[in-house]
Amino acid sequence: MRTSFYKEIEKDLDYLKAAGTYKKMHFLKSPVSNWTEVEDHGKVLLLCSNNYLGLANNPEIIQAGMEALKKYGAGAASVRFICGTFDIHRTLEEKTAGFLGTEAALTYTSCWDANIAVLSTLLKDGDTIISDELNHASIIDGCRLSGKEVKKLVYKHADLNSLEEKLKESKDSKIILVVTDGIFSMEGDIAPLKDIVELCERYNAMVMVDDSHAIGVIGKTGRGTAEYFDLIGKIDIITGTYGKALGGAGGGFIASKKSVIDLCIQKSRPHLFSNSLSPVLAGIAIAALEYLEDNPSIVQSLHEKIKFFQKSLQQIGLQVINGESAIIPIIIGDTTKAIRIAEKMFETGVYVIGFGYPIVPEGKARIRIQISDILTYDDLDYAVKIIEEIFKKYY
Predict the structure, then answer these.
(1) Which residues are catalytically annotated?
(2) Among 4, 14, 226, 234, which is least packed by CB within 10 angstroms?
């Protein structure tokens, strides 16, 4: 039995390799920046990181992490309700709530845990979750973990008519929670949050937004989708990460009303059974939030580079959608071809990733490019040159 188990695993891996969809890891040997050293490849231009504001190697951010390490050590070796809560956690949570305009916030080791915590803790028998079909995998898993007694519905991506149909179908539910990404990680589009909120108000439903790819990126001062649509203070639950634009180190959070946060403290399994966020990560996240508050112009700088790059790709004949997120997908279609193009670009010194099924829908494989404010205009010009050369040869 043991032998057959491992043979089946090897069979699955061989299939992935033969199909050209086997994923390989590259090992970085220097901090994440515009040019980053990769083992056996030298320095490459990094266009696949969530380091949207370029803060991952910012000296002020690094110093804050070092100071937290010296003051608190590596960690508490405990969950929060035992002895795992440092005062720096409270500082970060108060800072996060103030930044997003909510009553309170609670940190987790990742936004994955935060999403699972919300969806598996707050909903009960007779309640309904309505989720966008392209929501992040952590939301999908959170819906599954909410329990069989909670009704789960899915609406067509960003389709308000489809959402209204599901809201009508759920009208007899005790609680209705509509869940959406703020910026969708593979599409790069922004959820129509203003319309979603108006629709949910009409049907007495709550709104939850995962703003992991939006905080630091959209809104005049980088406060995410709520600020972008002038809805600060009007979203019931916001989840997000400190591991993307906000320093890149890791950690996640829930921001909401105090009662929601308190119930998650009391009952959410990722809070009760996982060690607390490292104080080093907390220190980095606090410094990143303060840096963004003091330097809101970096958001505008990022957007100027996004527009420049979109226009440059269009000028070489590629069809890309003009948008305001830092995610720019180039649709290829075939998964094997997308992965091959990404590998050829990497060999030429531009690090991007090809995504295919099941990460994206079948037939919609793509190269996903992510823009960071740390990239120079010379870097962007170089990337366009390489993209043009590789696409002419392999697409």
Answers:
(1) 185, 213, 244
(2) 4
